[in-house]
Design a protein that fits this description.
CATH architecture of one domain: Sandwich
Largest sheet: 4 strands, mixed
Shape: elongated
Strand content: 25-35%
Number of helices: 9
Structural class: alpha+beta
Radius of gyration: 31 Å
Strand order of the largest sheet: 10-11-15-14
Distance between the termini: 65 Å
Number of strands: 15
CATH topology of one domain: HSP40/DNAj peptide-binding domain
CATH class of one domain: Mainly Beta
Length: 356
């Protein structure tokens, strides 16, 4: 049975942000939670389906892969949904989430001092057609938030923190709502379990400052506009020993004065004189690959019409996944002279009579 679209499962649009995703998942989790639907296989199936959808869409890397290639892309990369076998797997995987929602079964409050992974950093990179089609290496400079050295990332002057009096250092506060005890992030300390007596003067209490960081991006030959490259560990540094996030580079392309790209094929105009189009000829043109100095031979058949196409197999864009290249497609553009000499006019009239 084919899997449903993950956005459809959660009932959100493709542009949904983290808050909308979490809200939609919470609604479905409450509706189909096993404690509310004992011995109901259908509800359990929907609970698993919603959990798998949220697992993918809440992860920037998996979401980018899913947006580009769908379920098949996730399966091929090994980065798809976790394939939960039972409800216990789900509660184990989403312990913090269900702790926020229910405060009971599956609850697993995370310690304010637990290691945390750094956030992913997004960067839009504009490439020339040649760079995208035939590969390149780009050096970029990004600005990422890093822990403030003056306060060791605490946001407090001198790094001195006091236990939060609102949550007692837990980082969460509990509220009873109907059948459930809801655990939410403490609004005073924002989940850290501690507060500052005085704000750090360097970061103004944020605990982090922006720093420039250089990164080298290897552009694979054949990448297309809209695809995202992941550079592991080049995002925001983790805190308390947690791993760094990733750098996610989204590709955009500049317009090209000669070529247009259609998948792995390149299309360009081929200017022909009227005699060459009528009689046929052999021409040489440059290989689109800027690293190649060879010439491509083009055989123009006699009687070539304006806008007629000539295909050069294997002279287009390298396949991103696999060997070989697409085609170079030449579109005939026949030039008709605006001014002709008397001799040329006489010859054209003779040709006109000959051709009828």
């Amino acid at each position: 049975m084919a899997k449903r679209d993950y956005y459809e499962v959660l009932g959100v649009g493709r542009g949904a942000d983290d808050r909308e995703l979490k809200k939609a998942f919470r609604k479905l989790a409450l509706q189909y939670h096993p404690d509310r639907n004992p011995d109901d296989p259908e509800a359990e199936g929907k609970f698993k389906e919603a959990s798998e959808a949220y697992d993918v869409l809440s992860d920037p890397e998996k979401r980018a892969l899913y947006d580009q290639f769908g379920h098949e892309g996730l399966n091929r990369s090994g980065g798809g949904g976790p394939g939960f076998q039972d409800i216990g797997d789900i509660f184990s995987h989403f312990g913090d989430i269900f702790g926020d929602f229910f405060g009971g079964r599956g609850s697993r409050r995370s310690s304010p001092n637990a290691p945390r992974r750094g956030s992913d950093v997004r960067y839009d990179l504009e490439l020339t057609l040649e760079e995208a089609c035939f590969g390149a290496k780009k050096d970029i400079t990004i600005r990422i938030p890093v822990p403030c050295t003056a306060c060791s990332g605490t946001g407090a002057e001198g790094g001195k923190l006091d236990t939060c009096g609102h949550c007692g250092g837990q980082g969460q506060v509990a509220h009873r709502q109907g059948l459930f005890v809801m655990s939410t992030t403490c609004p005073v300390c924002r989940g850290r379990g501690a507060t500052a007596k005085a704000r750090c003067g360097d970061c103004h209490g944020a605990g982090e400052v922006e720093r420039e960081q250089k990164a080298s991006i290897v552009i694979p030959a054949g990448i297309e506009e809209g695809q995202t490259l992941r550079v592991t560990g080049k995002g925001q540094p983790g805190t308390r020993g947690g791993p760094a996030g990733n750098l996610l580079v989204r590709i955009y392309l500049k317009d090209h004065p000669i070529y247009e790209r259609h998948g792995d094929n390149l299309v360009r105009a081929l200017d022909l004189s009227f005699p060459d189009a009528a009689l046929g000829t052999t021409l040489e043109i440059d290989d689109p690959d800027p690293a190649s100095d060879k010439k491509l031979k083009v055989k123009v058949p006699a009687g070539t019409q304006p806008s007629e196409t000539i295909h050069l197999p294997g002279a287009g864009v390298p396949h991103l996944r696999g060997r070989g290249r697409g085609d170079l497609i030449l579109v005939a553009r026949v030039a008709v002279p605006k001014k002709v000499s008397r001799k040329a006019k006489k010859l054209l009239n003779e040709l006109k009579s000959e051709l009828g």
